[in-house]
Amino acid sequence: MANLNFLDDELAQLKEQGLFNTIRTIGTAQDAWIEVDGKKVLNMCANNYLGFANHPDLKQAAQDAIEQYGVGPAAVRSIAGTMSLHNELEQKLADFKRVEAAISFQSGFNSNVAAVPTLMGAEDVIFSDELNHASIIDACRLTKAKTVRFSHCDASSLDEKLREFATARRKMVITDGVFSMDGDIAPLPELVEVAARHDAMVMVDDAHGEGVMGEAGRGIVDHFGLHGKVDIEIGTMSKAFGVVGGYVSGKKKIVDYLRQRARPFLFSSAATPADVAACTKAVDILTASGGYVAKLWENSKYFQSKLTALGFDLGVTVTPITPVMVGDPAKAKTFSKALFDNGIFGMAISFPTVPRGKDRIRVMNSATHSTEDLNFAASVFEKVGREVGVI
Ligand SMILES: *Cc1c(COP(=O)(O)O)cnc(C)c1O
Description:
Blueprint: H1 5-16, E1 33-36, E2 39-43, H2 56-69, H3 77-80, H4 84-97, E3 101-105, H5 108-119, E4 125-129, H6 134-141, E5 146-150, H7 155-164, E6 171-176, H8 188-197, E7 201-205, H9 220-223, E8 232-236, E9 246-250, H10 252-261, H11 263-266, H12 273-288, H13 291-310, E10 321-325, H14 329-341, E11 344-345, E12 348-349, E13 360-364, H15 371-388
Parallel strand pairs: 2-11, 4-5, 4-6, 6-7, 7-8
Antiparallel strand pairs: 1-2, 3-9, 8-9, 10-13, 12-13
Bound molecules: pyridoxal-5'-phosphate.
Pyridoxal-5'-phosphate is lined by residues 107-109, 133, 135, 176, 180, 205, 207-208, 236, 238, 246.
């Protein structure tokens, strides 16, 4: 048996730095109000933007799928066949996204791991926004391609890097659509223009844009009207879609190739019938109406204007993601605990998820919140903000 004492030191160090994360236990379905560690609190940290995680129609679709298809896919799709459910989801996703084709995966994380290493190899260069999500960073690490970081949301920095590596065989620009910790969005029209000049593919990970940006939540490419100009869109069904899963959508050629070569497709079982059917229902609901998305934005604007009026610093957000800047890990933890004691579930986010010194409470708005809920939340933020000395 190996000596594992090094882990005692590592764990002790995390505790000393105030970075040890105690994970809360939720005793109810994800909703506006949930039970956390036995206490009823207003949920302000889930990615359940539209309330789909506990939507009756999604639950019914999942139950029906279990009745008809059972609980598991029992294999990878390329070996033992795919269920018609998965094909139906992919077709509906492609239609919803207004692209040629889509391929689904078990998660958004896996979708990045599927797309990047399959398309990029040793003679290639990836140009990645410096604040891209960890799953993009890991996907890049799984390639033999060189990865070059460009300055956050900066098309001229991208241009400079593309010039520097002009002789690469293939080039791919990768950016988050909506940046999950700050709520700012990629300057996609500029990035697309620069990439086109250098014959570089463009890939957008729109995990926080799906169900949030664009017409009825079609995402950031739709928001900017850039259909046909972005080669690859990565989506997750674990956020606004309320379920779990991910997909790669875009040009048919790319999707066809991923079906042949993407390792999470070839070597990991497909998502379950219940998950897939619930995801399809989410797409159906969004295709039929933009009502949930409109409510999400109305709530976000209302709550953000209240916090700003109270003097909170919300950083650079332009989306429902609402970072309430606090400044150091201890203060963020105290803030989060005081929120909880006063009936609000809002988690502190610290290094390594955000840079040191940029500790925050990240409030996630949702269409499930009532005006009464938001007024209550604002009053608690005011009280706690004064106690902790943030406002
Ligand atoms: C959340 C997130 C993911 C991971 O999605 P999962 O479906 O939870 O695996 C990937 N990329 C970005 C940008 C994300 O915000």
